[in-house]
């Protein structure tokens, strides 16, 4: 799931103009915004109404299935100013990319850590990273709840590591 998020994030990152720096602490805000803008979990899992209720003018009877579209909620203009704009520096970002309530994602802290580390390192080490395919050629995996790219072809020029960077003295 984290790999799907990272691939999807890279797709957006590489097809969107670079707005200033997204390194270091900015990587955290960028990861949250990428999850809000196009997270890998579009729908929450099935819920069933425990009592009759009315949701958005729609009558839901006891036992009826309800599928919450997290991705739509994350573009709610009442919740997010200018919701269809990818703003990697967005400061207030109460997105539902990891769900909400008692089923809130147990792996969220791990996923956040991995995504921040991966995106931060890649951006700083491979500044020339770019897509190696037309956007229309990218293939997405099917699936009701989760989405993600099958693969994300990129090209880059590896930069030589600075002296002492990651190498241990013998
Ligand atoms: C970017 C990566 C991830 C995203 C976007 C994500 C998203 C979500 C979402 C939206 C839910 C709630 C589903 C619902 O309400 O029906 C969820 C639940 C869950 N996630 Fe994640 N997840 C990620 C990574 C992980 C990882 C790395 C783990 C485990 C190491 C994990 C474990 C779980 C578990 C166990 C639940 C079910 C919690 C429950 O039902 O009480 N997730 N995740």
Could you characterize the architecture of this molecule?
The chain has 170 residues and is an alpha+beta fold. α1 packs across α2 (26-38), α1 (2-15) packs parallel to α4 and α2 packs across α4 (108-125). The protein has four helices and eight strands. It is 29% helix and 11% strand. It has a single domain (2-41, 77-155), classed as Orthogonal Bundle (Cytochrome p450).
List the main descriptive attributes of the protein structure presented here.
170 residues; alpha+beta; Cytochrome p450; two-stranded antiparallel sheet; two-stranded antiparallel ribbon; 11% strand; elongated; disordered C terminus; binds protoporphyrin IX containing FE
What's the number of helices? 4
Shape: elongated
Share in helix? 25-40%
The mean pLDDT is: 85
The CATH topology label is Cytochrome p450
Order of helices and strands: HHEEEEHHEEEE
State the name of the first-level CATH class: Mainly Alpha
Give the biggest sheet. Answer: 2 strands, antiparallel
Fraction of residues in β-strands = 5-15%
Radius of gyration, whole Å: 19 Å
Structural class: alpha+beta
Give the N-to-C terminal Cα separation. 39 Å
The main sheet orders its strands as 1-4
CATH architecture group name? Orthogonal Bundle
The number of domains is: 1
In the predicted model, the low-confidence regions spanning at least 5 consecutive residues are: 166-170
Q: CATH homologous superfamily? A: Cytochrome P450
**Total DSSP E strands:** 8
Bound molecules: protoporphyrin IX containing FE
